[in-house]
From TrEMBL:
PROSITE patterns according to UniProt: HTH_TETR_2
Pfam (any one): TetR_C_35
Database matches in InterPro entries: AlkX_C (IPR040611), Homeodomain-like_sf (IPR009057), HTH-type_TetR-like_transc_reg (IPR050109), HTH_TetR (IPR001647)
Protein name as catalogued: TetR family transcriptional regulator
Keyword annotations: DNA-binding
DNA-binding region: 42-61
Domain HTH tetR-type: 19-79
Gene3D superfamilies in alphabetical order: Tetracycline Repressor, domain 2 (1.10.357.10)
Organism of this sequence: Streptomyces flavalbus
């Protein structure tokens, strides 16, 4: 139903098909990347597994890089929703919330086969998806930093804005660094990052 309580009109068949096709292609792209790394994902394989023609894929995504961007955006949205939920469960304790958020991110890096494949390949210097996660427009890095900075603005309004921005940037950089190069004592990482954030905030 819409906001006024009336039943929502169903999507026209063509729109519904396009949405379903897009989701099938991204699901298969995720599976293939998790199996062998993004470098081995081919549009021909995606078309076969998703039961979609190659022209339809190119029309929807533009090119293979467009599929990569859409896939990372899809994964980013799911990751950030989970992170926001973790942070909001501990709004009364900034340090504990950041520690829980870092632990959640590190667990995702190990448990999510797609993220694990991207990071594992990046450690070997071969994966082409890492730039979408870190340095291209609106990557995971920037979105996570904005999310954390906004959250700190709500739960630690007494800290100067520049300190909150610095703390958010530091937390995300340290977490990403530990994803790419795990610490010899990974269980200590969340607490270490939380201590650094508290020090920057002055709490």
């Amino acid at each position: 139903m819409d906001t006024e309580g009336t039943p929502a009109r169903p999507d026209p068949p063509r729109v519904a098909w396009r949405r379903q096709m897009r989701e099938r292609v991204l699901a298969e792209a995720r599976a293939l990347a998790a199996e062998g790394g993004w470098d081995r994902v081919r549009v021909a394989d995606l078309a076969l597994r998703a039961e979609v023609s190659r022209p339809s894929i190119y029309k929807e995504f533009g090119d293979r890089a467009g599929i990569g961007r859409a896939l990372v955006q899809r994964e980013t949205e799911a990751f950030l929703l989970g992170l926001a939920a973790v942070l909001d469960r501990r709004r009364d304790d900034v340090g504990a919330a950041v520690e829980a958020g870092v632990a959640h991110a590190l667990a995702e890096a190990g448990d999510n086969p797609f993220i694990d494949a991207v990071l594992g390949a990046a450690r070997g210097g071969t994966d082409a998806l890492l730039p979408f996660l870190t340095s291209r427009p609106e990557p995971v890095f920037s979105n996570a930093r904005h999310l954390l900075a906004d959250w700190l603005g709500e739960v630690a309004p007494g800290a100067p804005a520049d300190r909150r921005e610095e703390a958010a940037d530091l937390a995300v950089r340290l977490t990403l660094s530990h994803m790419l190069l795990p610490s010899p004592r990974p269980a200590e990482t969340p607490a270490r990052v939380a201590r650094a954030v508290r020090a920057v905030l002055g709490t």
